C-alpha cells in the first residue's frame, strides 16, 4: 500500500495532514525518511511519524528446503507428510510455498511469508528459469528440444507453454529449463512424446541454487544476498 494511503487510513490523520507530514519529512519507513507519497508500505515495513511507531513491521522469513520424495507440497494434508512438517519454525501458518513440486519430485523448494517476493520468483512474466534434472523411461530424441523451444499447446489451460531449453545429458537424462510452473508441466511436456518421467529434481529457481550441503528433508534460512537477488 502507498504510504499516503496507509497514513490517511489511520483515524488520527486526514489527507491534508498526511501531505504535510510527508513534505515536512516527518515520516520514516524502515528507518529512512520518505517524502514520496507513492512509497510502498508492506506488512514487513516499520513505519514511524516523528518518534511514534505506527507499525512495527513483522519479520519477513525466507527458507530453502531440499524436498525429499514422498511428501506433499501443501501446508496441510490428511494422509501424507507435508513440506511444512519438515520445518521447525514458529508461526508456520504464515508461511507459503513458492512453486509447488509433485509428491515424488525432489529438490529446491522455497518457503516464505512474503507474498510479493514469492510472486516475483514464480510468475511467468518475470521469466526466471526453473531448472530441472530429468530422467525418463524412453530415450530422448533430438526433436524434443525443438518442440520444447517452440512451446507446447496445453488444451486444458488453452495456452502454449513459453520457450523452454532442453540440454541432453545422456540418452535418457536431460536438464530442462522452464520459465513457468504449470500443473505437472515437465511430465506433460515429456508426455507429449509418450515418454514417462521417472525422476524429477529441481536444481534452481532463477538465481537461487539448491545448497549442496542440504540433505533431502533439510532446510536453511536464505542469506540476505540471496533474498535481494529476487
Ligand atoms: N513439473 C512436473 O511435472 N512436476 C513437478 O513437480 C514440477 C514440474
From TrEMBL:
SUPFAM superfamilies referenced in this protein's UniProt entry, alphabetically: Alpha-L RNA-binding motif, Pseudouridine synthase
The keyword RNA-binding is assigned to this record: yes
Domain RNA-binding S4, by residue range, is: 1-61
CDD domains reported for this sequence = PseudoU_synth_RsuA, S4
Q: Please list the reactions this protein catalyses.
A: uridine(516) in 16S rRNA = pseudouridine(516) in 16S rRNA
Q: What InterPro entries does the entry give?
A: PsdUridine_s_RsuA/RluB/E/F_cat, PsdUridine_synth_cat_dom_sf, PsdUridine_synth_RsuA/RluA, PsdUridine_synth_RsuA/RluB/E/F, PsdUridine_synth_RsuA/RluB_CS, RsuA_PseudoU_synthase, S4_RNA-bd, S4_RNA-bd_sf
Name the domain of life: Bacteria
Its Enzyme Commission number(s) read 5.4.99.-
Q: Can you provide one Gene Ontology molecular function annotated for this UniProt record?
A: 16S rRNA pseudouridine(516) synthase activity
Alphabetically sorted, this entry's keywords are:
Isomerase, RNA-binding
Q: Mind listing the GO biological process terms from this record?
A: enzyme-directed rRNA pseudouridine synthesis
Among the Pfam families in the record, one is S4
Query: What exactly does this protein do?
Result: Responsible for synthesis of pseudouridine from uracil-516 in 16S ribosomal RNA.
Q: Which family does it belong to?
A: Belongs to the pseudouridine synthase RsuA family.
What is the protein's given name?
Answer: Pseudouridine synthase
Q: Which organism is it from?
A: Pseudomonas prosekii
